[in-house]
Amino acid sequence: MLLSDDRLRAMYPCGRADATARRLARLWAAVFALGLAPRRWVTLEVAGRRSGRVTRFPLGMASVDGQWYLVPMLGERCNWVRNVRAAGGRATLRHRRSKECRLAEVPVSERAPIIKRYLMQVPGARPHVPVERRAPVADFEAIAPRYPVFRVIPAARPAQRRRRRWRWLLAGVAAFVILAVLAAAALITLQPVPAPLALPRGAASPPSGPLQGIWDAAGGSVAGFRVRETVLGMSNDAVGRTGAVSGSVVISGGRVIAAAFRVGLAGMKVGGKTQPQFARSLGTSGHPAATFALARPVALGTAFASGATVTVRTTGRLTMNGVSRLVAVTVSGRRDGTALQVAGSIPVVFSGWRIRGPDGYGFIASLASRGIAEFLFILRRR
User: Fold this and answer.
1) Class of domain 5-156 (CATH, top level)
2) Most buried by CB count within 10 Å: which residue of 50, 107, 115, 371?
3) Residue 178 pLDDT > 70
4) Are the CB atoms for 349 and 310 separated by under 8 Å?
């Protein structure tokens, strides 16, 4: 039920709010401070002129030509007017956020149109002002001396403080970016990297069975690549691995007379995960495998047959990404019980196989233009 104008006026006997008006004021002060009403409705916070404690008043503002004004509906009798004057105009307006401001009194000669506008925009003040809101401005000039008007002027922050805050803000953003980049670099460059493929550590079992014959790639065979990557000046190896290895070696008369192997590239994993960029660079959709064929026989020597480790350098034909080229390869091998263990590496310049690496970003992040193909084959005699 709406209250009549007479009841609204009766809630402020002698210009002071009664108990009902005070309860409503506390309610509306909370609502306006939370920003639950339109922008013009605010809660004024100002130090009490006697107690020094912060006092709060729910108020409606008038907007004239883009400028906000406060007008006391009770005129000079309003308690907040006295507090604002005692505080030298220093106050705070709350509407979702707290904004410090200075309330500057408008000269009497300029008040009339603002008071009229105030009554048009703040309905709750109409019962307390003795002029109808549609009356001409001249009628408001008659009451202007009794109704102070305050221009709301946002408090100006000192230029030095603004600059200091901007510097701190920019420094904080820069520090956050640097820490994030360094964390990413550390994650990439300091993570564990698999060791190069090589013969297993430890002594091999005594050789068992004949050496001559055909030896096929068996379980435990692995092949992959190793390429240097750099992030913010810190380097580490990107390493790929796959167990998709097949092929065989033919040994006769103490020599390897033929060797051919196939390595499936589609299942290559980097850091334990399949990398789409790797598949695109190697064109695995059209060339899903790399092959290697020995170019000429390799002598093993008499010591190899009895279990010694031998290392030889030879040549072979490496076919990858649709390109076939002769390459130098360093191979180490030994007998281990009924098996042969063979490990080696092949330097690969990417451009030689039309392999296009990912885009680099200079010092921030880059990938070398060459790498190492490496393998460890476990061979079993047919």
Assistant:
1) mainly beta
2) 115
3) no
4) no
